[in-house]
Protein: UDP-N-acetylglucosamine 1-carboxyvinyltransferase
Organism: Streptomyces solicathayae
Amino acid sequence: MTGTDDVLLVHGGTPLEGEIRVRGAKNLVPKAMVAALLGSEPSRLRNVPDIRDVRVVRGLLQLHGVTVRPGDEPGELVLDPTHVESANVADIDAHAGSSRIPILFCGPLLHRLGHAFIPGLGGCDIGGRPIDFHFDVLRQFGATIEKRADGQYLEAPQRLRGTKIRLPYPSVGSTEQVLLTAVLAEGVTELSNAAVEPEIEDLICVLQKMGAIISMDTDRTIRITGVDKLGGYTHRALPDRLEAASWASAALATEGDIYVRGAQQRSMMTFLNTYRKVGGAFEIDDEGIRFWHPGGQLKSIALETDVHPGFQTDWQQPLVVALTQATGLSIVHETVYESRLGFTSALNQMGAHIQLYRECLGGSDCRFGQRNFLHSAVVSGPTKLQGADLVIPDLRGGFSYLIAALAAQGTSRVHGIDLINRGYENFMDKLVELGAKVELPGSSLV
Ligand SMILES: CC(=O)N[C@H]1[C@@H](OP(=O)(O)OP(=O)(O)OC[C@H]2O[C@@H](n3ccc(=O)[nH]c3=O)[C@H](O)[C@@H]2O)O[C@H](CO)[C@@H](O)[C@@H]1O
Ligand SMILES: C=C(OP(=O)(O)O)C(=O)O
């Protein structure tokens, strides 16, 4: 989708109603694909969504000699790493800026080839997003790293060695970096202050199936005993709890009713508690979760994003749109990313009342309180939203703009919708299935 195709006209005011399905998690699937690189046999990954981050990783794996082909069932990939080889730097560099996943190729490539080239990373522009923890831990394993103009060059002169690591913050990517590196390193690795998101647990399940030895304590400590060789895996990816929550927020903001097939209670407990506090209704069965607006007024809340088991930061932006419809003052304290509230200025143009603050509002102090970042918000509601011209800033911000446009009176022009394909499978088809009145300019209602 490019040029004018990248604009969507959204005619708001219709509740979203019906059923959609979420497949494997954007924040697990590409990493499980990278894990396949560590094996000496093919792996089978099921429940793979057709999203851009998956395509990027597939391309990078293929450049390194991994064959990737569809498996027997829809959404299954077979990844064969038997002939891993060095890739051309210029070919890898063509993926610069496309996703955050390339950084996770470091450990597997160092084990398989003794060297790795990592291009500039992409991902959402919601903060500085440094990768210092990643390189600090890789150095501790024994890797050397050289930053050049086009990217990072890494080498492992000898087999990487297990080590004792304490992360300064429970970073998801850095925890995964340690896991993907430690499993084949010599000796034991002890990682403390690790992230323990459900996607990390699922990655550990993948690695255990391959032959890794990994234990998790209740105090954010993960111990990995390195092994000499790993095999392949067969794994069904856990469902995307972030996409599921986005549709749940869309149901609330548009006064709709959406059954999200595939949504799982276990990984969404914190979201579900918050949803209930706001006044949203849900019903859980074996196949998914139905989310709906039960009528009456929504309630304002105090919300703080945090690492798991806290309220996931990627749930924040879509839910804020629903909070514009709640009665009273809601407080949102974003503690994971320093710049994840900028998207609210467009909501204000649509009629919302959202004021940003540099202070840590709503309870605890976070890393950003003394550093001048607008990372707290007060949302006053309810406010009627009006259609507007919107430019999508990032993945979840983009989905939030779609929700806002659907909840608004009148027509919105949403620019940059291709970005949403990075993490939401077939979102246009799903919108149409739910009764949204959306239109690509120049064509009839889709
Ligand atoms: C592809 C993927 O899985 N993305 C998810 C992953 O991102 P990602 O793995 O990039 O997020 P991290 O958990 O690493 O980042 C959390 C915080 O740690 C900081 N940090 C991180 C690494 C580092 O080397 N130095 C550093 O300072 C970041 O700037 C951020 O403030 O976890 C985030 C937190 O749940 C989610 O929002 C993203 O959707
Ligand atoms: C921040 C996100 O993703 P990424 O880390 O891929 O940018 C997200 O999924 O909301």
